[in-house]
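Budget justification note: compute hours in this period were largely spent on complex prediction jobs such as the one shown. Inputs:
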Amino acid sequence: MSETTITADAVQEQSFIAKAKEFVFTIPVNKVSIKDLVDFEKTPRNNFIAVLTLAFIAMFVVGVAIYLSQGHHAYNVTREHPWGLLIAVYIFFVVSSTGLCIVGSLGDVFGFKDYELIAKRAIFGSIVTILAGFAVIAFEIGHPVTMMIYNVLSPGLTSAIWWMGTLYGIYLTFMIIEFVFLLKNDMKMAKIFGLSGLLVGLAAHSNLGSVFGFLNARPISNGVFYPTYFILTAFITGIFIAFIIMGIRYKNVFPEAVKTMLTGLAKIQALLISILIFFVTWKMLTDIYGGMPNRADVALHILGSWTFWAEVILAMVIPLIVILKDFGKSHVLLVWVSLAGMVGIFFMRYNLVHDTQLKPLQMMKIREYQLAPEWIHYFPSATEIMISLGGVGLCIAMYYVGTKVFNLDADH
Amino acid sequence: MQVEVSRRRFLQGSVAMSVVGGASVGVTNLLAGHGEEKGELSVTTKTGTSKATEVATLCEMCVNKCAALARVEDGIVTKLNPNPLFPKSKNMLCPRGNAGIQALYDPDRLKSPMIRVGEKGEGKFKKVSWAEAYDAILNGTDKFPGMGKILEEEQDNRSSFLFCAGEGMAEHTFKTFYSAFGSSNWLNHASLCLQTVVSGYGVTLGGYPESDLENAEYIIMAGANRAEAIVTPDTMDIFKRTKGRGAKLICIDPRFTNTAAKADKWLAINPGTDLAFVLALTFVVIKEELYNKEYVAKHVNGFDKYKINILDNNYTPEWAEKITGIQAKDIYQIARDFMAHAPKAIYYPGRRSTFSNNDFQLRRAMAIFQGLSGGIDTKGGLVFGSKLKLDPHEGLEPIYERAKARAVNKVERTKGQVGYSDCAVVSGGGSWVGWRNRYLENKMPYKVRGMFIYKHNPMMNMPNSAKTAQMFKRMDLVVAIDTMPSDSVMYADVVLPECHYLERTDPVKTFGGIEPSIAQRNKVLEPMFDTKPVIEIMGGLTQKISKPLFDISKKYDADIRDELANLNGKTAKEREAEVYEEFNLHKPFEHSQEYINQQMVQGTYGKDAVKSLRDNGVFYPDMDKYFKKLSGNEHQYYPEKHKSYTVNGGRAKTNTNKVECYLPNLTKKGVDSMPMWHEQYLFTVPEGKFRLLTGRHAQFTQSGTANNIMLRDLMHENYIWINRRVAKKRNIEFGDMIEVSSKVGKTTLRAYPTEKIGPNTVFFVHGFGEESEALTWAYKNGGNDNAVIEDIIEPVYGASSMHETNVEIRKV
Amino acid sequence: MARYGMALDYKNCINCKACEVACKEENGVLLGADKHRIWVGANDVDGEWPLLDIVSATFMPSQCQHCDDAPCQSVCPTNATYYDENSVVRVDPDKCILCSYCMNACPYDARYVDDRTMTVDKCNFCSDTRVARGETTTACQNTCPTKVRTFGDLDDPESEISELLRTREHFSLKAHLGTKPKLYYLT
Ligand SMILES: Nc1nc2c(c(=O)[nH]1)N[C@H]1C(S)=C(S)[C@@H](COP(=O)(O)OP(=O)(O)OC[C@H]3O[C@@H](n4cnc5c(=O)[nH]c(N)nc54)[C@H](O)[C@@H]3O)O[C@H]1N2
Ligand SMILES: Nc1nc2c(c(=O)[nH]1)N[C@H]1C(S)=C(S)[C@@H](COP(=O)(O)OP(=O)(O)OC[C@H]3O[C@@H](n4cnc5c(=O)[nH]c(N)nc54)[C@H](O)[C@@H]3O)O[C@H]1N2
Ligand code: SF4
Ligand code: SF4
Ligand code: SF4
Ligand code: SF4
Ligand code: SF4
Ligand SMILES: [Mo]
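Corresponding output:
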């Protein structure tokens, strides 16, 4: 194209760019300086969280440095247990993201008025959590740059991971756009992108479930269970986080509108958890009943592990009891229960990843002096733990910055 | 893409070594979980697709000498492939053969001559040049006396030096040095290995036969473990045919071995009681008249006496059941089946036979049993095979007047006969343990003060290592020729590093059998480091010592003085030169190995044979006509009608051409003339103790491979087998550290509770638990059996009875 | 082009592990016990001494099955795992992102991480070494003392392997998973 002849296309293009610029510059943001960032109420609890967050981020940096110098050697993943803590933490974050997206959608997509006041926070939270998830997985995938190149050049269309990754990419884009429209109070556009984001997110999410569901090498996770289970548990996770977010926002002193919303969420949570308990019970029963090798024995083994019971008690039993006690009116208690619930959810993810790999695929001895393989053992390395906690740190930090930069309260 | 550490770089000096050595501490361990696997470098090199040369060579990782083709790319051996041309190894290389590359590139290899600077056995050496090393051997240092001084003091008694060697292609070269040097003290692996089986079959059948496992239909393998103790071509021949494909295999072993896993029947026998088992088989065969009557009548000597011996002593299966633990009904069955399949039935002779005190008679009984079936020198039975002859080459065997006879404690037996005090028969090799113990007990008729070791590891290879250490410490001068800093090398005064077998051409060798051939190891690479083949080492050393030692002989040897005095019209100088020629130690080493090999082959087989050996590594007449590739996995070496199944008309090869049941001469030496059972052969273990067995593993060769990083990946260390139920009672779990102790010493290793061994027996693989710190991987890895095995010797040939030791075990 | 497969006369196997070493040396596979393309499995023998169950003590030599319907291939997000022109399942290290999904998905534990390239590696029927040089046996077949393996073209009715599969009974591992292995165990 020569300089003198400017085509109509080009003119249009230029005006598009100008519009886009304008669109971006009109996103309402607060001007914050570093000083503003460190300006928070210096209560012991806040101080503690701040220090912890910084420590986690520091761990992230150290973990990543070790990873960069030693590669996968820095992890305790093995031939028999190729997926470790980082995969679990990644799932933890993306499930959280999907859950927050669902919670956020209640108000701005589905129009349940009670829930509008959490929409922005939830949507922002879903962006933050998935970014944290990506930050963690970037250091689990051996070659993230290669991934970006060949995901496009030679896409593996039969691969659940490819779909999951691609869909999450689109999802993130949609969520960001939705968030921007929310900030701009353009509820119509927010709804369009919110709905698209939600649908893509759910698709991505059930694909994540199918990453496990497709493993016909692993009878314990093979089948339709995980794709559906993932959506259910995402919703539960979203509600747990909603409680936590609101608890922080209002320092556990909730205005009436918030109380109404929280009670509503708690009731939904009770329903979801009940369904989940049925899900898990029947999964366990069908796994064990019939005694299919590599499924029944693994299920029994899972029943005997404390991490499974941590998941059940923290994420299912306690929340359910507390909610049912007074139909979701003990909001403050529920904030704490949700915190514990998230720990339970973490174990849920960890168990999912670990349990899938519990059973060796090679059951014979391949060296002269060894015990016949029974169960595959795995415990994360310090590096894996550091990067994982780093993910949490990043998540808190990003959210905190978000609360400063954006107005996350509903514009009432 | 490939970030391989090249072998060459890998071998460059100590930096790389330390990476391999102990890099697993520090940050890595703290932050990751793989523990010790970390820090190990890749030392494998992917083979390429471009230019490469292939050199035909022979494996030296064990006794078998399988034919290999070494692939060389850019000066690096990237792969050892089996050479299909060799009938003995039939296109295979075992795991050790494949891992020969790792021995070549082992960073712990001896890299230059060294002389001792620390205390004896301490392992402190200084690197020196070859000239300095030779000089130290001749003249000594401030730490040790040289040969000159010793021979001077011993007044030219050449027998004041002991020579010992392990089996190897170039053992011959070293033996040439021994002969020229004029000592009469020679020891090798025989009395620790196959002495009794070779002599038992030797006196009974006239030779140690091969087994035609390719055609046998029924095989008893007792006390041999061909699936793990690999012997070619036996291992290949048999296991293609077992498991219902033509050969029935009965495995008799106190342990459930991999051979047992491939057998039709495995019978656990009480250690040391095989003789009772064979006698009972013989009883059934005689009683039921199942033996080959025609063959026995024509080709067996002394059968009537043997028959009476068997029947009168009532060696019934019921009798044997109590002794062996094998049920009488099984013995009946096996005896009948064996004879039903004869002559295509084999009682496999075995190889290592240093088991128990009755071993010689056991092998005799086995050979006679085979004789009764008629399965001798015939297809499907025990065969002698034929051998392609090689032309002799020049050696030197001067007689030194002052050289004393073999250092044996002479006992007058019958007129004119002398023997060891501790065994009945003096054999070629002699008893290692007997010799060592007499030396320590000061029972030598004269002083032995120095020793040369070639490719042999006495510290690890014979029972009671503590005594071996004592022997080494007492020797004034120990010269070791090895490739690795072995436990024995640690006791040396002068260390002469031989190059690796891929770096040298070795003496051409003829391999007899049903399909005989000649094979040659060709040099693949120039020696790395300051190392040499033994022929060049001997060449250099003899050049240095020959004249000075002759000068000593001149002083003490009256014969030499007489010869020199007898001028016969020559000048003294001329005369001296002439006499010296007879004593010139250097003479056998004047020519290169390549030249000598050519001399040994060309005369009989022509130039093409020489070329074939160089290019193909293998030669036999009509090879070009006979050799055919039949499929990806099979080759024909000889057409059926040219195979040497029968070479002696189906007869034994003894002087009488008959199987010898009855040897009255033996009684003169206090040995039974016929195999019979004695009470003291009973297997008994005191309460709370265990009988210790030892043996092979498919991935290791005795003490020589424990430092091989590739093989170590396959089996990290040896474990002690303990019966699972017994272990449970004693609270011993898999991997627990166990201290094994006997009267002579102790060792520690990990426990392997298993049902594969009986309640009063334990076993562990031989060759582990090295004490030499210079062996990065082998050092203190696993347990050393010879630290606990007692030095009991078998009374006929003085072989070591390795399975007569009871041990205690204790969890530590 | 060819469709390579391998028949294993597995009852001949004496568990010597020559094949494992040959593979490592030929293909420059890393040292380390878990870095293997090929292995031989053994069971602890059943029964109590001295009445042991010989039949329970079989050795199972194995490696990548080169599944015709390979889970490792269908789960690979970048098609780094692919079928080459000879139907051999291979990994292109340039495309592999080390997501490890294939390691999880392979029902045979045939895959491991090559620490040098930090990508996944596995048996490739010596495609880039021996077969690329025109040799007709793999390193593991060639070195085996009892000649357990026969490698060859399943599409060629004249090949030794085709002949074996026509005349000898055989089975494949975990056949119920529908992976259609091209490793055949002769009985
Ligand atoms: N307890 C017990 N003892 C035993 C046995 C047993 O089963 N149990 N087995 C016995 C038997 S059957 C035998 S044959 C003997 C074997 O006993 P040895 O003859 O001592 O053989 P290795 O133990 O293999 O030690 C061989 C030595 O040669 C060195 N070497 C290897 N290659 C070369 C080379 O090319 N050149 C030189 N110069 N040196 C080299 C090695 O480094 C090693 O130090 O052991 C016997 N001892
Ligand atoms: N892989 C490998 N192969 C080798 C060697 C090696 O080091 N490694 N070394 C080579 C050499 S030098 C030799 S001499 C041969 C040795 O070859 P073999 O003699 O076949 O092997 P070993 O393992 O020494 O012993 C044989 C078996 O005898 C059993 N046994 C012990 N006591 C008794 C008994 O009283 N009665 C019976 N019936 N069985 C008993 C042991 O449990 C063992 O399984 O192997 C050769 N091949
Ligand atoms: S049996 Fe193995 S170690 Fe022995 S010579 Fe043959 S290939 Fe080498
Ligand atoms: S080389 Fe052959 S016999 Fe040895 S372990 Fe491998 S398959 Fe089995
Ligand atoms: S065996 Fe495993 S690695 Fe090999 S093709 Fe099948 S699924 Fe893929
Ligand atoms: S690890 Fe590599 S080969 Fe395996 S699925 Fe991921 S990208 Fe494909
Ligand atoms: S076919 Fe080649 S790559 Fe595959 S296991 Fe055998 S030697 Fe290794
Ligand atoms: Mo031996």
